[in-house]
Amino acid sequence: MAAAKSIAVVISSTRPQRINPFVAGYVASVINSIPQTTAKVELLDLATVNLPLFNEPLVPGEVPADDPTPHYHYEYTRAWSALVRKYDGFIFVTPQYNWSIPASLKNALDYIFHEWNGKPAAIVTYGFRGGVKAEPHLREILNGLRMGTVEPTVALKIVKGEPEEREKQMKETWKKDGADEKITTLFASLLKHFEAKN
Amino acid sequence: MAAAKSIAVVISSTRPQRINPFVAGYVASVINSIPQTTAKVELLDLATVNLPLFNEPLVPGEVPADDPTPHYHYEYTRAWSALVRKYDGFIFVTPQYNWSIPASLKNALDYIFHEWNGKPAAIVTYGFRGGVKAEPHLREILNGLRMGTVEPTVALKIVKGEPEEREKQMKETWKKDGADEKITTLFASLLKHFEAKN
């Protein structure tokens, strides 16, 4: 039996007042309720990774593809490279900022190149209208990184309000909109990507 | 007579080995050779602005539209707000990173909101194939910020090589590709935006 695949659910916004950890936590909880033993899923928080705005003297695509990690100039880049290499696939959970993705996510993606190549990527957006404008931008960027992006698109509507009431309302909206089924299908698409490769 | 409009040519990449200052300098030099007295053009370098990854506790669109500057939490945001307010229009000169714009530019755009609104924006991309994939992303983001984006698209092809030889080769390529005429037309479109508003 093949070893269980390791999937990261990426918390993409790093601003202090973000609700991204709640949204990503919801996505992970839906996945963890699916009976299956072929993948383990964990949260990966870009705020914890804490990269500065890109300042490597190297071009990420120009380091050796088979072992890029030791070639970066900064220790934080080597740590990020090693961390991303540990995962077999990614679910990017991202807000929409000004009709695209936040700089925090673009920055983390741009820091490295070979580490993403060939791995499957799923996209979950959120915003007052579901963050749907961030999705085509992110999908194109991930294709540029030669990741295999999978369907369907999951767009979660958020609301304003006090934390507890807000979270309750959002969960109700998501369940009503069929988000759990979409997340389940999205996760199945990710797993299928591995079967196709084996 | 109306006061001369102030236009910033924005150096959008902040990585140490960037050629963005050379490319933006070329764009500014073409514009400065156009005989006209209705606008003054200067370089605005995002590396000098030196913003960290977005960490304001506020949502930029939620500060008062008529005087946003004093409402930001961090001094560097207030300085960026005041600087952007000084300009009437912008020419964003950007590289393409992974089929989109660099995080450094998205970050600078996302830090503020009202300061951009209603001002005209021109786009110049560069890359080995002209950076043409960055253009539709940036145009959509600028439209999201309610800027008036103008045409045509100017895409400048870059080459590899030692600095002096490289710059010479790029200038020759750009002149051969009609870049000077396109930049001149783009600048005229920016100025027309002001006439339309007066």
UniProtKB/TrEMBL annotation, chains A, B:
Any one cellular-component term (Gene Ontology): cytosol
One Pfam family matching this protein: FMN_red
Domain of life of the organism encoding this protein: Eukaryota
Cross-referenced InterPro entries: Flavoprotein-like_sf (IPR029039), FMN_Rdtase-like_dom (IPR005025), NAD(P)H-dep_reductase (IPR050712)
Gene3D superfamilies: 3.40.50.360
Domain NADPH-dependent FMN reductase-like: from-to ranges: 7-156
Record GO terms (molecular function): FMN binding; oxidoreductase activity
UniProt name for this protein: NADPH-dependent FMN reductase-like domain-containing protein
Lineage, opening ranks: Eukaryota, Fungi, Dikarya, Ascomycota, Pezizomycotina
